[in-house]
Amino acid sequence: MSEEKIKHTEQDDHITDHDYDGIKELDNPPPRWIMLLFYITIGWAIIYGAYYFWLKEGDHQDAEYARKSEKHDQKYQIASLSADDLVAFTDEVSLAEGKQIYTEMACMACHGLNGEGNAIGPNLTDKFWIHGCDIQSVFNVIKNGVPAKGMTAFKGQISDEKIQKVASYILSMKDSNPANAKDPQGVECNN
C-alpha cells in the first residue's frame, strides 16, 4: 500500500488545477530537446523572413535562377550568334567537326548517314529544300526545330557554334548525290 501511495503522490505533483466533472488534467511537458528544436525553428524562421522579405538582402527564386543561368552560360560559353555572325564554314577542320557532331547527335537516324533522307527526314543532298537552303535557314531549323515535322530543337543540347558547324557540314553535302537518295521535297534553291 505504501508503493501505491508513493506513486499517487508523484502523480499529484503533475496534476493541474483544472477539474472537469471529476476528471483531473495531468501536466506532461514535452522533453527539453523537442522544445529546443522548436525554438531553433522559430529563430530560423525569423532570420529567414528578415533576410529575404523584410531586409530584401537575398534573391527570390526568379532572380536566383537568372543569376545561376548566367553563371552556367559563362562557364560553358553559350552565346547566341547574330545573323551577321552566321557564315558557312568551308575549312576542312570545321566541316570535320560538323560531321562529327552530325554523327554524335544521331542526325543520321532521320536524314541518313550521307544526308540522303529516309522515311522520316528529307534529303539534304539535292537542290530542293523545305525550309530554305541558306546558312541562316538551316541554322534556324537545327536550333529551333520544326515540331510539326518532327524535327527536334537542338538549342538546349549544343551550342550555337556547334550548330553553325553542323549547318555548314549539311550545306557542304548539297549536290553530293548519294545512293538511295529520297525524292526531292520543297522548293528548288539556286545557291
Instruction: Give the oligomeric state.
Output: single chain
List how many beta strands DSSP finds: 4
CATH class of the domain at 83-186 reads Mainly Alpha
Proportion of residues in helical segments: 40-55%
Q: From the alpha-carbon coordinates, what is the Rg to the nearest angstrom?
A: 35 Å
Element order: H for helix, E for strand: HEEHHHHEHHE
Strand content: 5-15%
Judged by helices, strands and strand pairing, the structural class is mainly alpha
Low-confidence stretches: none
Net shape: elongated
Return the CATH architecture of the domain at 83-186. Orthogonal Bundle
CATH superfamily of the domain at 83-186: Cytochrome c-like domain
Strand order of the largest sheet: 1-2
| Biggest beta sheet attributes | 2 strands, antiparallel
Intertermini distance: 111 Å
Mean pLDDT: 83
- In CATH, the topology of the domain at 83-186 is named Cytochrome Bc1 Complex, Chain D, domain 2
Number of helices: 7
In short:
The protein has helices at residues 2-14, 32-54, 61-75, 92-104, 108-111, 135-144, 160-172; strands at 15-20, 23-26, 128-129, 187-188.
Chain-wise SSE layout:
Elements: H1 2-14, E1 15-20, E2 23-26, H2 32-54, H3 61-75, H4 92-104, H5 108-111, E3 128-129, H6 135-144, H7 160-172, E4 187-188
Antiparallel strand pairs: 1-2, 3-4
Helix pairs in contact: 4-7, 6-7
